[in-house]
Design brief:
Layout lengths: L2 H7 L37 H5 L7 E4 L6 H4 L7 E4 L9 H7 L3 E2 L6 H17 L1 H9 L22 E5 L3 H12 L3 E5 L10 E4 L2 H7 L2 E4 L13 H6 L5 E4 L8 H10 L4 E4 L15 E3 L8 H19 L16
Parallel strand pairs: 1-2, 2-3, 4-5, 4-7, 5-6, 7-8, 8-9, 9-10
């Protein structure tokens, strides 16, 4: 996330606060050794880079920079840390907790983008676009209009979409799918789903048995590892399709590979997958993208805007909205 996104979102803050912008540099040879460094992941640069800018800093706003004990101990004036990510895995939350410092994050900032991609996946699978594109990549052309019959697909209207997880993304996917005329079945043991055209079930198997498309939007946890395993795939209707724009840990990809090979699963579109997941591309009805669900300029700016709003509230002595506890849950 380039600093320009913060600069645009922080324009009003600059009128009343001294704001400095920095860009961390990639450090591919950095090897974490200290206990605090070993607690973080998915970061750019090194803690030393950030620590070098921390003198007298009162509020630290960042995206992917590394924040460790070394960073936090530089400025005695530090009062707030802001991370423009849904999951601030690049921040040592324990170190912040020990100092009693609040950490805010930006849950849901990418929800619109991920929901858009999900609907794109549904259209691609319904219309068989992966196979149609492969036809062209092999140098083929249609001799006449009738030859196109081999690529006849389905409308989304009237098809049943099973939404697993009714959080920020799941709700947006539902509203978009309803606009396409789809019938919605939701499974979420923690959140109630209401509305015309929406039916909530209490068991995942109920959803799997009736859905033409199953779309995953659940958080990964210790209890839902391989939520979609061999048994779950067999519980789906023959020819139903699977979409995963959530977390790779939710799907047993070996079982999915076998279900695709047998023809039981009619197609799959994954934005998240294990390194070995590339093998799924051997199937003509599979779409893979390299975790780009939230990769839009709007997502980045929205994250910066959310941070700017939190800083404004903090400066005014108002309650912060998205505070991360040590457990990583939002308040």
């Amino acid at each position: 996330m380039p600093a320009d996104y913060f600069r645009e979102a922080f324009a009003e803050l600059e009128a009343t606060h001294d704001v400095e912008y920095r860009e961390v540099e990639d450090a591919p040879n950095f090897a974490p050794r200290l206990p605090s460094e070993l607690k973080i992941r998915e970061y750019l640069g090194t803690p030393a880079q950030v620590a070098g800018w921390m003198d007298e800093v009162e509020v630290l706003a960042l995206h992917g920079a590394a924040v460790t004990e070394r960073v936090l101990q530089v400025s005695p004036r530090l009062q707030l840390v802001c991370c423009a990510r849904g999951g601030p895995v690049n921040v040592d939350i324990d170190a912040l907790t020990d100092r009693g410092l609040p950490l805010v994050h930006t849950p849901g900032k990418n929800a619109e983008a991920v929901a858009d991609l999900t609907l794109g996946f549904l259209v691609m699978l319904a219309r068989g676009l992966p196979r149609a594109q492969e036809f062209l990549l092999q140098g083929n052309t249609l001799e006449n209009n009738w030859a196109g019959a081999q690529f006849i697909g389905n409308d989304l209207r009237g098809r049943t979409l099973g939404v697993v997880g009714y959080g920020q993304v799941g709700r947006r996917v539902t509203s978009r799918a309803l606009a396409f005329g789809m019938v919605i079945v939701v499974y979420d043991p923690y959140v109630a789903a209401h509305g015309e055209g929406i039916r909530q079930v209490t068991r995942l198997q109920e959803l799997l048995a009736c859905a033409d498309f199953v779309s995953l939007h659940a958080r990964a946890s210790a209890t839902n590892q391989h939520l979609i395993d061999r048994d779950a795939l067999q519980a789906m209707q023959r020819g139903a399709c699977l979409v995963n724009t959530a977390r790779e840990a939710l799907v047993d990809e070996e079982a999915l590979d076998a279900a695709l090979a047998s023809g039981w699963v009619g197609g799959a579109a994954l934005d998240v997958f294990e390194p070995s997941g590339h093998r799924l591309l051997r199937h003509e009805n599979v779409v893979l993208t390299p975790h780009i669900g939230g990769a839009t300029r709007d997502t980045l700016f929205r994250g910066a805007e959310m941070i700017a709003s939190e800083i404004t509230r903090f400066a005014a002595g108002e309650p912060l909205r998205n505070v991360v506890h040590k457990t990583g849950a939002a308040r």
